[in-house]
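Notes from the 1:1 (GR / supervisor)

We went over the backlog. Supervisor wanted to see one worked example end to end before approving the batch request, so GR pasted a single chain during the call. The sequence is below; no edits were made to it. Supervisor asked that the structure be written out right there so they could see what the output format looks like.
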Amino acid sequence: MGLRGIGARVPTVQPGGRPRGRPPKWTQLASRADRVIAFIESLTVTAGMHAGQPFRLRPWQQEIIRAWYHTEADGRRLVRTGVLSMGRKNGKSSLCAALAMAHLVGPEVEARGQVVVAASDRDQAGLIYNEVVAFLHANKALLGRTSIKAFAKHIEDLVSGTELFVVSSDAKKAHGLSPSVAIIDELAQWGTGRGVDLYTALDTATGARAEPLQMVISTQAADDMALLSELIDYGKRLRLGEVTDPTFSAYHFEVPMEADPFDETQWALANPALGDFRSLEEMRAAANKAKQMPARLASFRRYYLNQRVAAEDRWIPPDAWDACPALPAPVERARAFLGVDLSAKRDLTALACLRPNALGGYDVTVDFWCPQVSIETRSVNDRVDYAFWVEQGHLTATPGNIVDYGFLRARIAALMSQFQVEAVAVDPWNAQDFTSQLMQDGIPVIEVPQTIRNLTTASKTFEALIFDQKLRHDRNPVLRWTVTNVVAHVDGEGNLKPDKDRSAERIDGVSAILTGLAIALITPSGISVYEGRGLLEV
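Structure output shown during the call:
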């Protein structure tokens, strides 16, 4: 069965299958909703400003639970699908975990049930799993009846045989499940393809259960075609009386699209916990940043006001980039970090050089290469004058129809001689041969996969340096073009990175800078923006 985790001992379960001790008070209540509420309020808050205190459900939370666990005269629960959508940081994960507990070891447990926690990726699903584990460790009586396998993100109730699983976008795993309850976290992030497959697999996997329940808890999606949008719109039709469906219940908290997004009196409409356990100060700080940057405004409206908004606006406004200080003459043998964006051989190739400066930021230059043969076609397709940039020395055209990486290696060698280069950061995608060549040249190479986890700190720092005017650059028009092309992706947790798919034009220069900056920021002797004002947190 596996161990129950840290300090595992023999489970405190009697031979007959019942936990030792008196039955909890919630077992004496008649209503299923009352039992779920009382059970959750017997738990202990494990994180945040109320950590260590009893879990006290707010009236709006109790209303949702009473709707979802309302029963017919025969005691059967009516609702089969419950949807809750609201702004971030309103306790969605804690509520999900508490409801999962109710079905795992509480009043809703059933013999050999399955509690499935599903999310777009395993890390996101792990947030609720970790909260369930924390609840168990805070309640020794419940911990004593469970077996926890942390490596598999799996929990078994030794009394009922009910199991809790974590699944992500691998729909094949979901096809073998038979959930009693499926908790679908942040459905807005699931996208299409495998996300749709996973949702469909879970939605159709409950046929063997007498009272299955699907709970969808998420911030708003970006467009009308998203799965979550369809569910929310169906819930709105129910509230308007256009359709009747007692098996479906939706609660959607949002600020109206026509409202002023910076009107604080409107914010509570999307944030029922605002001023309670949802910080008003943090929301004000996010609003102030949203006033400065289009990308942040879109994400503020979507994740804080829970509005259906696609963050398609450009990330860095041209005037903010143009306001950065001019680059002074380079200091020989200064410390430097290099970042490489190879892209495909027919696209732009970029090499960024970042040198810590006295402002607490970085001096940045970027070299660009493109194939000579494709310049005319590229100018038409991209609607910029590549030939002029080549003539002015801002872009190097390499012979033939692909970029000759020999030019890039030669430039890296030159920078190695000019500066004290501590590392060359490279996106490993399609760069194995190039990386091997650099290593053969004796050049220190560090791979930086272009994931949001690897790039969010660098992206936020880059943003902060620009608006604090601590980043100095040489006014290269190619670099300016790539900077102003970038559309940023901001997820529900405030993580940030460039989105190449939604950025219609080239962003290679920015990618090279962020790849190098990701390494510069974790180098102990580097000058970091953290020593100044810090990152622009969402």
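Supervisor's comment: The chain has three domains: 25-252, 264-300, 318-531.
Batch request approved.
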